[in-house]
Amino acid sequence: MIVALNHKSNFTKEELLSYLDAYKNLNTYNHEMILIPSVCYLSLIPSNLTYASQDVSSKDMGAYTGEVTAKAIRSLGAKYTLINHSERTTKMNENLDISKQKLEQAFSNDLIPIICIGDSLEEHKNGEYVDKIKKDMDYLLSDIDKSKDFIIAYEPIFAIGTGIVPTNEDIEKVTTMLKETYHKKILYGGSANEKNIDELKQVKDIDGFLLGGISLKLPSLQEFLNKL
Ligand code: PGA
Questions:
Q1: Mean pLDDT confidence for 166-188
Q2: Is 67 designated active site?
Q3: What fold, for 2-227?
Q4: Which atom number of ligand 1 is nearest to the Cα of residue 4?
Q5: Strand, helix or coil at 219?
Q6: Would you list the domain boundaries of the chain?
Q7: pTM above 0.90, yes or no
């Protein structure tokens, strides 16, 4: 399985270095681990590990003060980048148009996008969520060659960092639609942890997990991996 570790905006340099030191002793079995630290630490990740960026600029290289381009991130050895994480759209006021530009930047700079897609609690409750997710995905992928390499992460927005996880049956409505429509690897993300992994790993049509909170705590992550 793929296990992607989204550190979000956590850790000082010293904290990350001691995390990396302890990470060496983690038993990751045969899972494909992807470390996703804050972008400023990408060059601290040992080259034998696979790592990703949490975001890329929607712009190409040039006069865009403060932006971190996909080209620069790729040159630091990152293999993947998250695109359209709901914390970008709900907390940083980005929208699907910006995410689409970022997706194009990732593709044109040889970064494999992990496209995050999710529904709000309201959309989930009124049953429109499968259609809404398909509509958003189709918009992001419009004019893009679907045979390109990408991963999709289904992350219900109300599940991120809250401890609320939809039922497997509810998750499968999305993961099965995503698998049948796009034929790519599918991750689940949103409060997945060492306590609910026994249940979540039974979700159909998933190839791994995108982890936030638990990715920061190596003993819990180890328990998660032991059960995966
Ligand atoms: P969480 O975050 O595991 O803390 O819910 C997941 C994510 O935001 O990718």
A1: 97
A2: no
A3: TIM Barrel (3.20.20)
A4: 9
A5: helix
A6: 2-227
A7: yes
